[in-house]
Amino acid sequence: MRLVKTHAAIALMCLSLAIPVHAQSDDEDEAPKALNFGDLEYAMPRNPMLWTNTPLWAEQRTPRRQLMPALESLKTAVPVGTAAENAAETLHKAGAHCQVTSATEMNCRYRDSETPWPDYFDSIVWNVKLSLTDGKVSDIDVTRKWYRHS
Fold first, then answer.
1. What is the pLDDT of residues 125-143, one digit of tens each?
2. Cys-Cys crosslink for 128: which of 95, 100, 108, 137, Cβ 3.0 to 4.6 Å?
3. Number of helices and strands (H, E) in the chain?
4. Phi then psi for 139, rounded to 5 degrees?
């Protein structure tokens, strides 16, 4: 009788482990999540501590290698060939404010803030530059800078 209970307990454990695996395969069929600058910011590494002689409000730039996942997300959400109006709408829904600066360029900006340390907070600015050709996106670039203040 004890052996039967042990086998039943093992079978129940195996079934409980199988259910999450099946649930994960169903999630793969969902549509990709919409672009959101808050999500991009959350995925960034924490801004580092600064030397004590660094003045507050000194502009700090995020290294290019750390921006590559965000750039790929932007290029997926706004592929080359997208109409400028549609690109601006997509980036606006993601939280950015866009402005066409010339017939060949549109700039979009997203601002955020975070409090990585108890005595400071960081103002963060994402800049997305869209190169335009015939009113369509021909290239995308992104920069991220931040300023520390108390």
1. 999 999 999 999 999 999 9
2. 108
3. 4, 5
4. -165, 155
